[in-house]
Amino acid sequence: MEKKVLQLENADIYQRDNLVLSNVNLTINKGDFYYMIGKTGSGKSSLLKTLYGDLRLQKGTGTIVDFDLKKLKEKEIPFLRRKIGIVFQDFKLLSDRSVFDNLAFVLKATGWKNKDEIKAKINEVLDKVGMQSQYYKNTFELSGGEQQRVSIARALLNDPELILADEPTGNLDPKTSLEVMELLNEIHKSGKTILMATHDYQLIVKFKHKTLKVEAGALFEVSH
């Protein structure tokens, strides 16, 4: 039987008090790669925020990596976020610290204590994204593409069951976008499940994956 990583049933997604998506039904199994497309403001980000606990699921049911979104308590959110990796459009790196310290910060915050284990894990994820040689640089010295690689490395730190990427190429030029997409593809091939919000049609055409569309308050799967 396929393992469900994410399931929403008749879920209503709100941004503050506005209903942005209604009656969302979605199942993502382990190893899937889904794009989520739709205009800016259509509700893609609100849906992702609901999945990682930033917005409450007010109506319907939802589970993500074995957490019940309906019953999710404030104190459980850090544990949920250990099991999912999040990649943002604007990287959200700590600009006053090195690449290494950005990643060490996340590991320490999620309970890692042993220095050697921390170092080994950081080297492992930086190696995966081709950034190991730049571990000592401050993140503000890096190009946008390099920063996004570091942010993908950060998302991999706790070996997540699911990676949520919110417009990960939104701030990058076309060439860099392709490189980042190739990296996400590699990560997917290594067995990771990915849900990626994007409006970069160049990528969707080049890298074929299942596609969800958000439009007029509804979410549906589109066939290529």
Structure description:
- With 224 residues, the protein is of the alpha/beta class.
- It is built from seven helices and ten strands.
- It has helices spanning 44-51, 77-83, 99-109, 115-128, 144-156, 174-189, 201-206, and strands spanning 4-15, 18-29, 33-37, 59-64, 67-68, 84-87, 162-166, 193-197, 210-215, 218-222.
- A hairpin with a 2-residue loop joins strand 9 (210-215) and strand 10.
- It starts with a strand and ends with a strand.
Produce a short descriptive summary.
The protein is α/β, with parallel strands linked by helices and about 220 residues long. The protein has seven helices and ten strands.
Estimate percent helicity.
Answer: 25-40%
Give a count of the beta strands, DSSP E runs of length 2 or more: 10
What would you report as the Rg, rounded to the nearest angstrom?
17 Å
CATH fold field value? Rossmann fold
CATH architecture: 3-Layer(aba) Sandwich
Which sequence of SSEs, written as H and E, runs from N to C?
A: EEEHEEHEHHHEHEHEE
List the helices and strands and how they pair.
Blueprint: E1 4-15, E2 18-29, E3 33-37, H1 44-51, E4 59-64, E5 67-68, H2 77-83, E6 84-87, H3 99-109, H4 115-128, H5 144-156, E7 162-166, H6 174-189, E8 193-197, H7 201-206, E9 210-215, E10 218-222
Parallel strand pairs: 3-8, 3-9, 6-7, 7-8
Antiparallel strand pairs: 1-2, 1-4, 4-5, 9-10
Helix pairs in contact: 4-5, 5-6
